[in-house]
Amino acid sequence: MEVYKFKAQWSPQVKAITHGFAVIGLVILLFNSINGFSLSGTIACLPIFLLLLVTWGFHPSYYLLSPEEIIIKRPFGDIRFPLSEIGNVESLTKEEMGFSIRLFACGGLFGHYGLYNSKALGRYYMWCTNTTEMLMIIRKNKKMVIISPFKKDIFLQKVRQFLGE
Q1: CA distance 126 to 130
Q2: Whether the predicted pLDDT of 41 surpasses 80
Q3: pLDDT in tens, 93-130
Q4: Counting C-beta atoms within 10 Å of the first and last residue's C-beta, which end of the chain has fewer, N or C?
């Protein structure tokens, strides 16, 4: 069976936010260690590292495409979309998305993922690490999922081939 793996490559924005957040946590930890690991310093570090752990666990690591399904690989569990449930897949730009609001989502730390809403698209799920490489999956139930596989044009060509288009 053919299975294609596509990277979830970080955009410069995602890199800056993620690395910046990690550096803040490490700086707080460093200052705490200089002061002899005080209880208040340790407590200040916990939310930052907990947030980093949780957001890391749900971020898209990479995407798999097979003749049967699209899989978003994540450290804390995969998301699967059978191709039989997909109506269409198309390229998407930020301009076409319009302004989006996070309903239950992460907007930059390890990527952009979760539930969003925009006037142009309505409610949609996003599992992206780079908003310049987006594809919109329109499922047969009309729910939309946005992903960002590296080399999206090859991904799009292969998925359309598997869909028989």
Answers
A1: 11
A2: no
A3: 999 999 999 999 998 999 999 999 999 999 999 999 99
A4: N
Q: Between helices 12-34 and 39-58, what is the axis angle to 10°?
A: 160
Q: How many residues does the chain have?
A: 165
Residue 121 has which token pair?
A: 């698209």
Residue 58: pLDDT above 90? yes
Give one DSSP letter per residue of 63-76, joined into a string.
EEE-SSEEEEE-TT
**55 to each of 10, 11, 22, 27, 60, how far by Cα in Å?**
14, 16, 12, 20, 10
Q: Tell me the backbone φ, ψ of residue 58, rounded to 5 degrees.
A: -105, 0
User: Would you state the structure tokens that stand for residue 40, as one six-digit string?
Assistant: 């208040």
22: which residues sit within 8 A by CB, 6+ positions away? 52
pLDDT tens for each residue of 142-163:
999 999 999 999 999 999 999 9
What's phi and psi for 22, nearest 5 deg?
-65, -40
* Domain ranges within the chain, ordered by starting residue: 1-165
- The pTM assigned to this predicted structure is 0.91
- Rounded CA-CA distance 149/5 in Å is 9
Q: Measured at the alpha carbon of residue 12, what is the angle toward residues 63 and 146, in degrees to the nearest 5?
A: 35
Cα-Cα end-to-end distance for the chain: 20
